[in-house]
Write a structure and sequence with these properties.
The structure holds two protein chains of two kinds. By secondary structure, chain A is α+β, with helices and mostly antiparallel strands. Chain A is 25% helix and 16% strand. Chain A is globular. In chain B, a hairpin with a 2-residue loop joins strand 1 and strand 2. Classes of the chains: A alpha+beta, B alpha+beta.
Chain lengths: 517, 212
């Protein structure tokens, strides 16, 4: 029997990326508890509003789908402020206890990324709680936020913190995020122009349709896909090492909860656009191809380079899609099925046929952050091709922010609120950030970094290597292409590590019913 | 087991540290010798400033203290302990042991005396020859080679690393240039790096960052 999770006990943001479920608007609020009792009373009042992971469809008319979502998480300092028993507190892993600022040396948060350059809210003492609201539109977001403010006002000693950089030089007491809109419709784009957030892990019991498994689960030796172990993403369940993830006692405090990384990543859009424009002059291919060779996916529709690795192949793919779409609209069911199968390849692919990176460069963003089976340099070296990545998968839960400044300069307030959930911040997020984003030993690329999010400084050797295309018969071999003097496209503007408790644990915290003995 | 692999030598020594305490200038015992040695090791400058950077052909050198061995938990409760605390000295270098130690003594006598001063019997070491005899008496036969260099002379390896760095940077600057321009630039590049001059320009021993 496959694993059944109590989805009504798990917070909804763990199992769903709300942005893709019809909630393109979000607001993140950060709280401080000055009085543990008032803090607990506030939580008790909030429990009824928390959105759980119960399964509902993405489409608008799903009856269980709420108008807005509400979720909450706590920093270690927040749990201390709520007077959780010491014995439980001491059971949390060191990464979470220390928090993001203290881990800046691991994360590459140096230079302009370093904590002194973060938004003001992250200066001084740590925030205590993160509260998120997602809504279907701006009006619903504002009315939910107003209701939350009213609720908050009745609890003296629970403070909504200010200090987020907002648009046009403002300072706000919340961080807004929003899908990027095109012609009035939300898209999956971020501000550099890439289609983002296409592939997220699939784990056992997550409540999603099994049709989403291929490309998202773990790759087996025979080429099939299996769901990742629940314990990779939710505490109190067995993980890929067949162990329970490190979590505090009592078990009911941690079971069905998880950890979340919140990270505000500013995008220097002007610098990025100028860099691409300038480099494209020397590049043998379109500007879109150059961008794709940095990310691993085509910017316009997110198709992976493994599916179309040149401008010509992309043109063929686009025309095939256009044809299938047209025939589908005409009622051709066969074409509709073919189109659906084609889109599965956006996620269901490996780098097996591209060992030398001639299609998707070995240092490209998606090949670093989800290596799939590509680190098995000798076939059969591991139990499964992706054994090394299966313990380092990132469940991303973020949205772009900003983009409404009048200015287009780098100083314009825009970027991505990056969030990811997982049962070990150190093993998953921190490892990927340190070893695969800001270093390249595992890829045999020396000190190269992720071309998009690496902490580059514009030096000659801050580079990304685009391997040459496969040599064709009767054609001269082409040279590889170097993207040199990479500047810092993305800057960290703040963040922290949060514990996202289950509904059971939230009530235990609120009712001061935690007994770790 | 061989201490040599081609022209590379792997030296591993365990020098016992005196059992007892350091007496301060007031005649009072203040700390055990191993603690005093640990402090001395911590004060050795790193990288280019380390005295090992002055000992020719050192690929890799390390000093640390072995206090005891740790008990492996399990059903077997027999515990082993070391007879002494040891100053461990490892060095991987190019060439033969005796000339290496001779140069180490001749060029870094003050530092060597300072580091080894609390080791058993070291007070009787006063010449390069006695230093060689002492180190050999403490030597273990191992095959613990530093997996980061070949067996060429350090000068040759540093030059190779320098050329590798410079060539990588040269390649990055030639993208998009015509073949004739690249050829001309390569000629200048060869003049600048002077492939046949191993001494200069090159990386310095123990250089810890790329040449700017």
């Amino acid at each position: 029997m496959s694993k059944q999770l109590d989805l009504y006990d798990i917070q909804g943001n763990i199992c769903k990326g709300y942005g893709r479920y019809g909630y393109p608007k979000a607001r993140y609020c950060f709280l401080r508890f000055d009085d543990p009792k008032q803090g607990r009373l506030f939580l008790l009042d909030l429990i009824k509003d928390i959105t759980t992971a119960e399964a509902w469809e993405a489409k608008e008319d799903s009856p269980n789908k709420p108008p807005c979502t509400t979720n909450i998480g706590f920093t270690y300092s927040g749990l201390e402020a709520l007077a959780i028993p010491q014995r439980s507190l001491k059971g949390f892993p060191v990464d979470f206890t220390a928090g993001m600022k203290a881990r800046s040396h691991i994360l590459g948060d140096t230079g302009c990324n370093s904590p002194e350059n973060w938004d003001e809210i992250w200066h001084g003492g740590r925030v205590h709680a993160w509260l998120s609201i997602y809504a279907r539109d701006s009006n619903m977001l504002e009315s939910r936020f107003d209701a939350f403010l009213e609720q908050l006002a009745t609890f003296a000693g629970v403070e909504l913190l200010s200090g987020h950089r907002g648009p046009n030089g403002t300072t706000l007491n919340y961080q807004d995020a929003s899908a990027v809109y095109d012609n009035g419709m939300p898209t999956g784009k971020e501000h550099f122009g890439f289609t983002d957030g296409i592939s997220n892990p699939f784990f056992e019991g997550n409540g999603h349709k099994i049709s989403r498994l291929a490309g998202r689960g773990k790759l087996m030796r025979d080429g099939s896909w299996q769901p990742l172990a629940t314990g990779e993403f939710i505490l109190g369940h067995v993980d890929e090492a067949r162990e329970y993830p490190l979590a505090p006692e009592p078990k009911m405090l941690s079971r069905n909860g998880t950890f979340m990384v919140y990270r505000k990543l500013h995008e220097n859009v002007d610098t990025f656009a100028r860099y691409i424009d300038n480099l494209a002059k020397d590049f043998d291919g379109s500007k879109d191809l150059l961008m794709a060779k940095m990310s691993g996916r085509w910017p316009d529709n997110g198709a992976p380079l493994t599916l179309a690795a040149t401008d010509e192949e992309k043109a063929e793919l686009d025309s095939r899609i256009a044809d299938l779409k047209y025939r589908s609209l005409e009622g051709d069911e066969c074409a509709a099925a073919q189109l659906e199968q084609l889109y599965i390849k956006w996620v269901d692919f490996s780098f097996d046929g591209d060992k030398n990176g001639s299609k998707c460069p070995i240092g490209a963003h998606i090949r670093r952050t989800n290596t799939r089976g590509s680190l098995e340099h000798e076939k059969g070296a591991f139990d499964r091709p992706g054994a090394l990545v299966d313990r380092r998968r990132l469940m991303r839960r973020g949205l772009p922010y900003g983009g409404i400044d009048e200015a287009t300069a780098d100083s314009a307030e825009q970027g991505i609120i990056f969030m990811c959930v997982g049962s070990s911040i150190e093993r998953q997020f921190e490892f990927v950030q340190q070893q695969w984003v800001n270093y390249s030993n595992d890829f045999k690329l020396g000190n190269d970094k992720d071309p998009l999010i690496g902490n580059h400084d514009g030096k000659l050797t801050d580079k990304h290597l685009i391997q040459a295309p496969e040599k064709k018969l009767f054609e001269a071999a082409k040279a590889p292409f170097f993207c040199t003097e990479l500047p810092r496209f993305v800057e960290t503007r703040g963040g922290d590590y949060f514990f996202i408790p289950s509904l059971t644990a939230l009530r235990m915290i609120a009712e001061e019913m935690i007994d770790p003995s | 087991m061989a201490n040599k692999s081609g022209k590379a030598y792997a030296l591993t020594t365990l020098c016992p540290i005196n059992d007892g305490r350091v007496v301060n200038d007031k005649g009072i015992e203040c700390e055990s010798y191993d603690k005093a040695v640990r402090r001395l090791l911590q004060d050795i400058p790193l990288n280019e400033d380390s005295f090992f950077a002055r000992v020719d052909n050192t690929y890799f050198a390390r000093l640390f203290i072995l206090n005891d061995v740790f008990f492996q938990q399990g059903n077997d409760f027999q515990q082993d302990h070391l007879k002494s605390k040891y100053l461990c000295f490892n060095s991987n270098f190019h060439g033969e042991l005796e000339p290496y130690l001779t140069q180490m003594w001749n060029d870094c006598e003050a530092e060597v005396r300072n580091v080894w001063q609390y080791c058993v019997g070291f007070n009787r070491v006063n010449t390069a020859l006695e230093f060689i005899t002492y180190i050999k008496a403490c030597q273990l036969k191992t095959t613990l080679f530093f997996n980061g260099s070949n067996d060429e002379s350090l000068t040759k390896q540093l030059k190779a690393l320098y050329v590798k760095q410079m060539f990588s940077e040269f390649v990055l600057t030639q993208q998009g240039k015509s073949a004739s321009e690249t050829k001309t630039n390569f000629k200048y590049f060869l003049q600048r790096v002077q492939l046949n001059n191993l001494e200069s320009p090159s990386w310095k021993p123990a250089q810890s960052e790329l040449t700017p």
